[in-house]
Specification:
Layout (H helix, E strand, L loop, with lengths): L3 H6 L1 H26 L4 H6 L3 H24 L3 H25 L5 H6 L3 H21 L2
Helix pairs in contact: 2-4, 2-5, 4-5, 4-7, 5-7
């Protein structure tokens, strides 16, 4: 006989649930990044703006890395989502700190204008912060 409680404990079901939630959260978080940046990520990527592609790729990798640690260190889906949301918030704060600490350089504007060096640094900051944030997730 089919047991509902056993259904949710099945590793395939749990994996599919976590995967679906991470995809949904990633889309929501990328939409938030889209709001806070002066450029439109996907329009710029479609035009071939490699700086935007690197910065966006770093954000995607950062979000995924944070959720990787969140899933690894938490038993329930809801707790993993909570830690993932906190991690994303810290990643977003890191983006604003990067902009603030470089007053001689308008990071957002430079990335939007296709400055690959700034896009690369932005990508590496997102990746680096994600590892630090992820390591502290309990």
């Amino acid at each position: 006989m089919f047991k509902v409680s056993g259904f949710w404990e099945n590793i395939v079901v749990e994996t599919a649930a976590r995967y679906s939630v991470v995809i949904l959260c990633t889309l929501v978080f990328l939409a938030i990044f889209e709001i806070v940046t002066s450029y439109k990520n996907w329009e710029e990527i479609k035009k071939g703006n490699f700086a935007v592609a690197m910065a966006t790729g770093g954000k995607i990798f950062g979000i995924a890395t944070i959720f990787r640690y969140s899933i690894q260190h938490n038993d329930t889906l809801l707790i993993s989502i909570g830690w993932g949301m906190l991690g994303f918030f810290l990643l977003l704060v890191g983006y604003f700190i990067f902009e603030f600490l470089t007053p001689m350089l308008k990071v957002d504007e430079e990335i939007g204008n296709g400055n690959k060096a700034v896009g690369f640094i932005s990508m590496m900051i997102s990746i680096g912060l994600a590892y630090v944030i992820g390591a502290s997730i309990g």
